[in-house]
Amino acid sequence: MPTASNGRYSRRDHFFARNPDWTEREDNFIRENYPDYEKLTKKLSGRSYNAIRNRCRVIGVSRRLESWTAAEKLRLRKLWPKGSKRDLGNAFPNRTHSAIRSMAQAMKLTKRLDLFRTNVPLVDDIRQRARSLGYTMSELDTLARSGRFFAAGCIKGSVPRPQYIEAAVRRLGGRLTVVWKES
User: Fold this and answer.
1) DSSP assignment letter at 93
2) Is the pTM of this model over 0.70?
3) How far apart are CA 147 and CA 32, in angstroms?
4) Would you tell me the crossing angle of helices 137-144 and 162-171 to the nearest 10 degrees?
5) Dist CA 86 CA 6 (whole Å)
6) Alpha helix ranges (H) inside the chain
7) How far apart are CA 140 and CA 134, in angstroms?
8) What is the per-residue pLDDT across 79-122, written as a single tens digit (0 to 9) for each?
9) Which positions of the chain have pLDDT values less than 50?
């Protein structure tokens, strides 16, 4: 029945003529079959995929996207490099592996490869300490303001830079000391 003063259908009438209210039966069907959207769209043929998806959100069936807390990001930073899919799933039970991987990519985290030796024991010790604290070599370079000195592994044949070594040791919570051999 037209509601506009000129006897025509209004946009609102047209919208509701095509989109009737959701029934309790439809809501129950969604609750029983979520997240099988293929089955939902077949059974609820008068509803579009987007309408069904929106209804899932409205009735509280779909998973709500939760922001990552600082504590979760810190835990991810520690676990991601060596953590298996199972370890990550146990550490983040309310997150899908895809969500965990996406956050790791957004944080520019990488899986850890074994460190190669540089044949400079002091540099190798610094790199190992950074690794044990959960830093990547790129992050260590950022901390020490050393360009790519540690990530590149103190390129073989190059001279270790004392200022980079001192900055890295200090930022990793250590201190340099010199012990002279008695002659």
Assistant:
1) T
2) no
3) 56
4) 100
5) 65
6) 11-18, 24-33, 37-43, 49-58, 70-79, 85-91, 97-106, 121-132, 137-144, 162-171
7) 10
8) 888 788 888 989 998 888 889 999 999 988 887 666 777 778 88
9) 1, 9, 13-17
